[in-house]
Amino acid sequence: MSFQIILGSASMARRQILADLGYEFTIMTADIDEKSIRMDKPEELVMVLAEAKADAIISRMQSSELDGGGDQATLLITADTVVVYEGIIREKPSSKEEAWEFIKGYSGGQAGVIGSVLVTNLKTGKRRGGWRSAEVYFHVIPDEIIGNLRREPHSTLLGV
Question: Taking the model in full, what pTM does it have?
Fold first, then answer.
């Protein structure tokens, strides 16, 4: 079966995963206000955000008359990840300063990482998705290392 893939994400890590697996894909990003979508449980939040991203991309494709591949099946992959630290859901930092504060806070501690993936078949409309979580334990991060991260102009580790 032949199919096209649309990665609904700007994430370099997600791009790399698909590329490393040998897939060719198109990138389309969702223009949604993630901060306006709130859920109490992080597991629900990552799934709702992945669904909102898929809905926004599908809507944009329909309004621009992109058909998602004609006779060929097209799979749209969307995802989201949050961190739970001291009981608080943290999303992508909004600035380098906030990213630096996050890293400094993780030093010697632990955080939960919850991620979701949603695959939508644009031909049939069927969706399948799920979430997984992991606990991350951090060694003490020396101030010098944190300071270097703060000065790095394009640090992907900080997510900004």
Answer: 0.84
